[in-house]
Amino acid sequence: MMSATSSVVAEEQDNVAEGADRAAAAAEATSGVDIRLLDDMRDLAAVRALYEGIWDTGATNPPVTADMLRALVQAGNYVAGAFDDAVEGRDLVGACFGFFGPPAARTLHSHIAGTMPRVRGRHLGFALKLHQRAWALRRDIDTITWTYDPLIRRNAHFNLGKLAASVGTYLPRLYGSLDDSINRGDETDRILVRWELRSPQVVGAAAHRPHLVDAAAARAAGAGIALRPDDSEAPRRGALGAGTVLVGVPADIESMRETDPRRAADWRIALRDVMGGLLAEGATVRGFDRAGWYIIDGQEKS
């Protein structure tokens, strides 16, 4: 017989899962898409082609193959696609897939999520992540992890602000050398984020209450500046002695990689040294201000 405490916990879990289902459905409707799980080989081949187009890899070097996606589905993992309701034939315009972590960890690792450029501004990435969250909660998964490039402002804002994920680890050169139009010529440093699906911050984010932080207020409260763009958008390092520091990133690192690859490489090294070093010492990332600043809380340095 279930105890009273167990019954309350089960009811709370059901409430969170039901709320996640409603939030996912609302985001899907707002984006004007139909998001569904995929297992047909034709759909999985379309996912491969979508990713090839987004990352401009070409057919000889796809981010994932249809047969690999089919194997992931067969093993019970998450593969979903978003189909545009506004287009006859309902074109595939976004896709996301992930795989389970160690059994005891109750985590899903979300490996690749991508959307077509023409649907930007419709919040499709948000809808895909909420669909993934609802799917995971129905399978007793508490946490979803994924990685992102910490130099890209919009990704930092999306992950840490709009989704309220938290920063776990700085991972230098995680994927080695990638030969696609987005990553070519750059080292693949990544941030591992953790999305605690039942946390109040994430529940709030799913209800369109993002996790916002204010770099100007942190500065006024005594935060130092550990790294920032100078007047020429080059990285300028500062002091690390304050208990809280701001770490800035350039406005458009992707364009910089094309126009000034040496300066972009300087940014990669500077952020690895500063942010990676702070996290290795036990500092925590409070959040990301959309103006281009990570706020990082750590120990006072002597």
TrEMBL record:
InterPro entries attached to this UniProt entry: Acyl_CoA_acyltransferase (IPR016181), GNAT_N_AcTrfase_prd (IPR038764)
Q: Where are its TM segments located?
A: none
Which Gene3D superfamilies does the annotation name?
3.40.630.30
SUPFAM superfamilies per record: Acyl-CoA N-acyltransferases (Nat)
Record protein name field = N-acetyltransferase domain-containing protein
The organism of origin for this protein: Microbacterium azadirachtae
Q: From which lineage does this chain's organism come?
A: Bacteria, Bacillati, Actinomycetota, Actinomycetes, Micrococcales
